[in-house]
Amino acid sequence: MWVGEQAALRETVERVADCNVPGKPASSGGKRPIARRTRVWPDGQGCRLPATKSGPACDRGAIAVPRLTVIDAIELARPDDWHVHLRDGELLRAVVGHTARQFGRAIVMPNLRPAVVTVADALAYRDRILGALAPGVDFQPLMTLYLTPGTTTADVEAAVRAPHVHAIKFYPAGATTHAEAGVPDVLACSQVLRAMQHHGLPLLCHGESIDPHVDVFDREATFVRETLPRLIDAYPGLRIVLEHVTTAEGVAAVEAAPENVAATITAHHLAYDRNAMFAGGLRPHMYCLPVLKRAHHRAELVRAATSGSSKFFLGTDSAPHLRGAKEASCGCAGIFTAHAALEFYAGTFASVGALDRLEQFASRAGAEFYGLPVASERVRLGREAWTVPAKYDVGDGELVPLGAGESLPWRLLV
Question: 89 CB contacts (<8 Å, ≥6 apart)?
Fold first, then answer.
């Protein structure tokens, strides 16, 4: 069962239309107008709730509950992915086509080995990405630099001049995959941060504490409580993205911050809570950083993503690792979602009846934050059940995608 399906049903039952409800004053003529609500179900099926003891059917023959309608297809401006890991070499060649099929542009993470630390590094990596695409594919990789203790104001100025570099990424040292070259304390990079603020170059934050005494499930909440406010106070004009936000505390911090502070939200953090990592045993392909959180955090992420706020936008954090690196005594963090990212997002938005806000989240808010035009091309998603492949072959290895072997109710129609 799709995560959130039961909650959506429960919400629908609780929010019964106000029609001939006993104990409430009626409008003119002794009858209430029929309240009609569109509800979209994540399993692809419409539903009509049974009559209850709330009262007789309305005069038009409707029962006193929301009227449920199934939406079979939606169209939106071609979305962008504002946070993706494309890797390099053979793995890059295996995964970039999935992202290019789903999205027109993508902010590409710089945590390679060696890291992408200069404009020259970024442009060379961009050439490798474009070279890995099939002929005729229209996809724009938007490059980033990796913030290290050696990053200088000259690097910032070079990034600003380079049309293909769009941000600098902050990894707390050792916080996640290939984060060893990061900085222990971002506030120690004062000259670089001032230059970024001056030039309007965004800082993309992996927002987790690296204090070893902080519980893994509390690392984001600790960062947004102890570090993010100091960063905002010290550099009030700095454009900041709290990447892959996962907690209610992170959502609240972004909502309370100035308009130059935003956040990306992943498909997997919207669809799953931390129980998914332990369902029937340890599930290495559900392990990512930041880790999945409790159900109430997931509910806040869904609320934020579907709110229509320009502060929250799509960022898959699709992070591929081969099966051998995941199913190991010390498995790598990262979930590969690029194969079906839009389908997962559509399922979540449908589960709360918010498909009309998917375009704002997926196609508009991120482009607005980065000062880029919204795509003129349109894409369609249809209610068409399909089965996610159990694996994708990558040379002699295998890549296990999110939802491997499972049926999804939405499909990108191309």
Answer: none
51 and 80 part of one domain? no
| Average model confidence (pLDDT) across the chain | 87
Q: Are 122 and 143 in contact (CB under 8 A)?
A: yes
Give me the amino acid identity at 312: F
Position 246 pLDDT exceeds 80: yes
Q: Are residues 12 and 85 in the same domain?
A: no
Report pLDDT digits (tens) over 58-115. 333 333 334 446 789 999 999 999 999 999 999 999 999 999 999 999 999 999 999 9
Contact 146, 116 (CB under 8 A): yes
Of 81, 155, 273, 317, catalytic: 317
Whether 159 and 284 map to the same domain: the answer is: yes
pTM of the model: 0.85
Q: Do 180 and 259 belong together in one domain?
A: yes
Q: Which of 19, 53, 70 is the last residue of a domain?
A: 70
**Three-class SS of residue 392?**
strand
What's the first-to-final CA gap in the chain, in angstroms?
27
Residues 231 and 317 in one domain: yes
pLDDT of 179 reads: 78
- Three-class SS state of 145: strand
**Residue 115: what pLDDT?**
96
Q: What is the domain extent for residue 32?
A: 1-70
The confidence score (pLDDT) of residue 71 equals: 84
Specify the DSSP element, H or E, that contains 138. Answer: none
92 shares a domain with 33: no
Which of 39, 70, 101 terminates a domain? The answer is 70
Secondary structure E strands in 109-260: 140-146, 165-170, 203-205, 240-242
32 and 168 inside one domain: no
Long-range contacts of 112-115 (CB under 8 A, 24+ apart): 112/87, 112/88, 112/178, 113/178, 115/146, 115/148, 115/178, 115/181
CATH number of the domain residue 243 falls in: 3.20.20.140
What is the pLDDT, as a whole number, of residue 51? Answer: 36
317 is catalytic: yes
User: Does the bond joining 401 to the residue before it have cis omega, within 30 degrees of 0?
Assistant: no
Alpha-carbon gap, residue 103 to 81, rounded angstroms: 6
